């Protein structure tokens, strides 16, 4: 990696960035494993149910596109989770109030009950995972993760020129 290719390149900063992104990878894997082991659901399943349970949605649900954007996941990942939740009877496709030709995804009454039934487990899960954090730590962590997420959304790597590969 040369300075001309990367602009200003600081090896010590690269090491810190590398360590941070590796830790995020580990945290994601730990979250995935613990959700499955302790709650019996994946983090994506949890996030979809949580997104659809927000009070302002009522029974109207959300469009598939809005749900992928809100959760920041791929259409394929969301589609797989929704198919599983539909088979379980937790979500359904409903006619959009804005566009009668379109369908939204919404929790079924059974899905709402399932979500409510998990709340105590979620509370315990959060409490145990975050027990080493002060309230200020939590606020700072949320702020910093939001900043990182914003930075990730702005990434547009330069593509190598076809001429330089010869």
UniProtKB/TrEMBL annotation:
<dbReference type="InterPro" id="IPR036388">
    <property type="entry name" value="WH-like_DNA-bd_sf"/>
</dbReference>
<dbReference type="InterPro" id="IPR039422">
    <property type="entry name" value="MarR/SlyA-like"/>
</dbReference>
<dbReference type="InterPro" id="IPR011991">
    <property type="entry name" value="ArsR-like_HTH"/>
</dbReference>
<dbReference type="InterPro" id="IPR036390">
    <property type="entry name" value="WH_DNA-bd_sf"/>
</dbReference>
<protein>
    <submittedName>
        <fullName>MarR family transcriptional regulator</fullName>
    </submittedName>
</protein>
<dbReference type="InterPro" id="IPR000835">
    <property type="entry name" value="HTH_MarR-typ"/>
</dbReference>
<dbReference type="GO" id="GO:0006950">
    <property type="term" value="P:response to stress"/>
</dbReference>
<dbReference type="GO" id="GO:0003700">
    <property type="term" value="F:DNA-binding transcription factor activity"/>
</dbReference>
<feature type="domain" description="HTH marR-type">
    <location>
        <begin position="17"/>
        <end position="150"/>
    </location>
</feature>
<dbReference type="Pfam" id="PF12802">
    <property type="entry name" value="MarR_2"/>
</dbReference>
């Amino acid at each position: 990696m040369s300075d001309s290719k990367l602009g200003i390149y600081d090896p010590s900063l690269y090491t810190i960035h590398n360590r941070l992104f590796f830790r995020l990878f580990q945290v994601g894997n730990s979250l995935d494993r613990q959700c499955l082991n302790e709650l019996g659901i994946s983090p994506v399943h949890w996030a979809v149910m949580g997104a659809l349970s927000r009070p302002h949605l009522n029974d109207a649900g959300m469009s598939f596109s809005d749900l992928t954007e809100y959760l920041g996941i791929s259409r394929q990942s969301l589609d797989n989770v929704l198919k599983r939740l539909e088979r379980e009877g937790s979500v359904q496709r409903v006619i959009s109030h804005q566009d009668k030709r379109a369908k939204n995804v919404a929790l079924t009454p059974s899905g709402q009950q399932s979500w409510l039934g998990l709340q105590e487990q979620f509370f315990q899960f959060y409490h145990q995972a975050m027990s080493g954090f002060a309230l200020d730590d939590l606020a700072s962590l949320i702020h910093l993760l939001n900043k990182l997420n914003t930075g990730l959304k702005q990434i547009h790597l330069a593509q190598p020129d076809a001429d330089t590969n010869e």
